[in-house]
C-alpha cells in the first residue's frame, strides 16, 4: 500500500463527470469532521503529465478547498489501477444502505419468481383443458359458449349476419 503524501490542491484536476456528483451537504459534513479530527482518509490521485487527476475522494477534496487548505493528503496510484479500482463508499452507513437495498431487491425478485412458478401450472391447466374438448383447428375461446365454439365461422358477411340473428347476437 502506497504511503500517503501531501499534494497541492491547485494541481489536482477533477474530471467533469465527477464534478456533477458533488453533494454540498456531504462536503459540509466532511469539512466539520476535518476541523474536529483532521483528514483521516487520503484521496487517490494519478499522475497525468504535470498535474494530478482525482481518482477517489471528491468530497474530501472539496471540503479541504472550502476550508482554505492548500494541500491535501493523498495516495498516488498507477493509471492502470485507477481505471479498474472499484468505487468504495465514503461512509459506512451508505455502504450498509446499499447492501440492504440489494438484499431487499434480491428477496423481492425471489418472491416474484416463486409466485410466477406457482401460477404457471394453474394457467397451463386452465388453457389446456378447453383445447382438449374442442375440435382440431378451432381456436379456443374461454368466453365463448361450448355450442358456439364447435361451429365453423361463416365465410361471408350475409352468412355471419344470419348466424348472429339465429343465436340472438347483435350485429
Could you describe the 3D structure shown?
This protein is α/β, with parallel strands linked by helices and 171 residues long. The protein contains seven helices and five strands, in the order ββααββαβαααα. It has helices at residues 16-19, 24-37, 58-66, 79-84, 92-133, 146-150, 157-167, and strands at 5-8, 12-13, 43-48, 51-56, 71-76. It has a five-stranded mixed β-sheet with strand order 1-5-3-4-2. A hairpin with a 2-residue loop joins β3 and β4. α2 (24-37) packs across α3. It is elongated. The protein starts with a strand and ends with a helix. The model has no long low-confidence stretch (mean pLDDT 78).
Features:
alpha/beta, 5-stranded mixed β-sheet, 14% strand
